[in-house]
């Protein structure tokens, strides 16, 4: 049973889950392939160009400064346990669909998905780069090992948009309501999970597959 993880690059908990899953896989005797599936936290949105998540939270989510600081600190402290430097105050409020399309392109070109996703998370959540900007995405593609020419046709077409939407639709049909969500066969775990919990999920899935 191939493990599947649904995630959105906008989600700091997904970056932590990404690292937890890598650690869990490293404990296994063999390296299993992982399906890294796109999930859109705001599937109908177009982002908020020029604004940060903090600004949107204070203006539109009914959150005050104290509430934002509490959430920011909880996320950033949790991230440090994974060696991550998350800077929530400056995270751009993007539509993540273009970044997901780039990740699909990278996978189609043979880029290691674990490496590509880690770079995307870092670009947005650590370095606060605007992943809604095609020029920024072009630079990110080069960091992934692609060429600028690889990505140029992406923005003048709908390439990989259907694959991203299909991932999200499959998640909804599977009952996924939060990310990250990890699935092996009929078993799923959602949210911030320990490495031990993910190792157990992988182990049970492998045992069931061998029956």
TrEMBL record:
<dbReference type="InterPro" id="IPR036249">
    <property type="entry name" value="Thioredoxin-like_sf"/>
</dbReference>
<feature type="domain" description="DSBA-like thioredoxin">
    <location>
        <begin position="5"/>
        <end position="201"/>
    </location>
</feature>
<protein>
    <submittedName>
        <fullName>DsbA family protein</fullName>
    </submittedName>
</protein>
<dbReference type="Pfam" id="PF01323">
    <property type="entry name" value="DSBA"/>
</dbReference>
<dbReference type="InterPro" id="IPR001853">
    <property type="entry name" value="DSBA-like_thioredoxin_dom"/>
</dbReference>
